[in-house]
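User:
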Amino acid sequence: MNRAFSRKKDKTWMHMPEALSKHYVPYNAKFLGSTEVEQPKGTEVVRDAVRKLKFARHIKKSEGQKIPKVELQISIYGVKILEPKTKEVQHNCQLHRISFCADDKTDKRIFTFICKDSESNKHLCFVFDSEKCAEEITLTIGQAFDLAYRKFLESGGKDVETRKQIAGMQKRIQDLETENMELKNKVQDLENRLRTTQVSSTPAGGVTVTSPSTDIFDMIPFSPISHQSPTSAGNGTQLPPIPSRSSEIKRDLFGAEPFDPFNCGAGDFPPDIQSKLDEMQEGFKMGLTLEGTVFCLDPLDSRC
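Assistant: Predicted structure:
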């Protein structure tokens, strides 16, 4: 068994790797529909789903409805199901969410795969009629899965745990920045109280000249109203007012802006990158099973 891919009988891949990694391989098929299944894998699971959907199509066909045609675009990025004329994407199944794929050994048209829905997290079974190329489509999906898994490893999939640690360190930095800001506010509050106490202790009618109080670093504390009073130079001209600091940019004790791991430039990972990596790792770890099986067991199932 290849790490994330298995089939009972080894088959030769159908396409050059570049066809799936740089482009996509198109197929035309009829879409019988999709239905929810309880398990992500299993021959009996897909067999029941195929019977259910084929029976529903028989009813619709008897009412004059045609089976809709679709275009499948298979690549390392997933299996897209499109409307052939408008190219509107009806479903986009990412490969790490596809866990089982099977084709009918007796009816070369029918194939199916199970994919975990990205919104509901339910397992859905998709069933198609593919004009006698079901096995080829199944193998193409298997090849795309194998290439996508290798690309995932090459692009850093092995470093998921390391990235988790980095994310934890970034969160710790944010917490320290918040704690630092709270401590600065407390120091400023204590300094304001100290100045208020000094002013209230000055005798009434008396003029006391005192030197400005200093903080623990022997620095004159910042006064929020100091920039509002213009200062005169020795020749009587007024110096330009000190520009006020923007309240939007908060700096730490050493004058540096707080570190924001989610605002580090366009080249960095988005906030949900870790959950996406975990999801892909879990999907590839589960693997894709390809099987050739028998779906049509009675005359009713022999035709769509």
